[in-house]
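Hi there, hope your week has been kind to you so far. For a while now I've been wondering how a particular protein folds. I'm sending you its amino acid sequence along with the backbone structure tokens. Could you read through the record and tell me how the tokens relate to the sequence? Take your time with it, there's no hurry, and the full record follows here.
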Amino acid sequence: MHIMKNHLFYVLALALFFVSSCGNSSSEGDTAEQSDDMAQFAGDEKFKDAHDNPTKVEMQDGGAMITYDTPDGKKGSAFAIMPEGGTDKYLFVIHEWWGLNDNIKREAQKYADSLGNVAIMALDIYDGKSADNPDDAGKLMQSVKEERAKAIINGAIAYAGEDAEIATIGWCFGGGWSLKTSIMAGDQAAGCVMYYGMPVQDKEMLEPLQADVLGIFAEKDEWITPKVVNEFEKMATSMGKDVEVHQFEADHAFANPSQPSYVEEAATKANALALSFLREKL
């Protein structure tokens, strides 16, 4: 009996070892090179430490929150700046992991001033929630459900109308969703700008993309690494996609003036590239 108990204990222990090994293997394999989801970095203390609490920005007059129907039977919201007389040209602005805060609204206002007769919609992927510290930002980013995010985006596309030309821009979390949004927009997609967001790394997911892409990345980024960027560019080019990539000697989030990683010279050049690209596409 004693021998049988020992044998049973050994079998159970061995089984647990293999289960644990498989779990660890899967976790370790979920690296930046294998996932297109920024949420994988939400619990990374180094990633959080690379961000300061966002500072207050000065808002200008113009723009208001709007709501629209989403295909899941709910409502979506966006900070919108609509030109007088209407337009079929739209720019969807996708926020960082902080949510739709005043910094993103101010960026939307800047693009409204610079692009002229273009409707600007800064989409709220977090459904009204936002964060003022990295811990809460990480939790919000992790809480995003793919289905709901896509419903918010599809609702915005429907709101713009079937004749609309839609360009997209986003940073970090929003950079990845800028690319996804342009993919979802199909033949309505006019152009995509993504700042240091995780690019789609699956050919099947990228195949429907019809828009040209301007990718702005950081050479010192420890999460959206040059390897990730180069592999995306290589894959997209091999598929006949028009992708223009610029990598700056800077860290992640270098274009956000409220962050310690901000590099004014690189940000100025990157922002000029983005504006020129959007003017050409819209």
In short: The chain has two domains: 1-30, 33-281. The domain at 33-281 is CATH 3.40.50.1820 (Rossmann fold). The chain has nine helices and eight strands.
